[in-house]
Amino acid sequence: MVNYVTVARLSYAEHLVAYPWRLSLVTTWPRAVLQCLFWVLIGQVRGNGAAYAFPGAVALSITVSTIIGLSDVSTLDQRWGTSSRVRMANVSITCLNAARSVPWVVDAVVVYLLCVVIVGPLTGLGASTVWLLRAFPIFLLMILSSAAAGLAVASLSARLDTNVLLGNALSWLMLAAGSFVTAVVQLPVLDTIGAVLPMTHGVAAVRALAAGTPYFPDVVREAVVGVGWAVLAAVAFRVQAMRARRTGNDFAV
């Protein structure tokens, strides 16, 4: 346990070197806020209203950290040729990468807070801002479940170095199938796919909380989906490590 705490601490120090606060303040965080604002306005014009779209827009902005950003964690090891050192360590590769994901989880929390407190007042959704802040535990669950998906993307894309492609593809699939901005699903199959994607049930739980209807079942579903993605990531990391030991190559080509 001490080893993983040390990994998380050192990873956070490394993260601050690569992404210092002052740089995030003028680049990635404004981008996330503007993206959230964009989807809220889209929901207002084309969907079920700005209030309906707001929690989904916040969730989509979080994926920039938890799925697209976090998927670089293990991929960079392969690009820099340090994966063999990681495999030689007497630790779980999955737990090691989970510990190294802590900086991106913290970044996702910051993105959540900025989107809620800035976009809400800008769009006249002050009341929504209040209940979105109250729903922080649910958003934290969504951050963790989507982070598990980010690790799965990183592990599944390891052989062909396609983490950026798969990360963006998963984010867009979540938008299409998760009813984040509009409740209208054009293809029934998307509704089925959305049920196994991170954040779908979490966003539904936030909306249920705001409406005063039972939300705990959706919270449980979100947790189950998150565990499923975590298991998928663990299996993929293990298979990738076994293949790399057998072939002596981290990539397929």
Describe the model:
By secondary structure, the protein is mainly α. It has 14 helices and no strands. Helix 3 (28-46) crosses helix 8 and helix 10 (136-156) packs parallel to helix 14 (216-247). The two termini are 35 Å apart. The model has no long low-confidence stretch (mean pLDDT 86).
Shape: globular
Helix content: over 70%
What is the CA-atom radius of gyration, in angstroms?
18 Å
Termini separation (Å)? 35 Å
Low-pLDDT runs of 5+ residues are: none
**Count of runs of 4 or more consecutive helical residues:** 14
Structural class: mainly alpha
**Order of helices and strands, N to C?**
HHHHHHHHHHHHHH
Main sheet overview:
none
Q: Mean pLDDT score, rounded?
A: 86
Structure keywords:
253 residues; 14 helices; single chain; 0% strand
Q: Helices, strands, pairings?
A:
Layout: H1 2-18, H2 21-26, H3 28-46, H4 50-69, H5 72-80, H6 83-88, H7 93-100, H8 102-122, H9 126-134, H10 136-156, H11 163-177, H12 188-194, H13 200-211, H14 216-247
Helix pairs in contact: 1-7, 3-4, 3-8, 4-8, 4-10, 4-11, 8-9, 8-10, 10-11, 10-13, 10-14, 11-12, 13-14
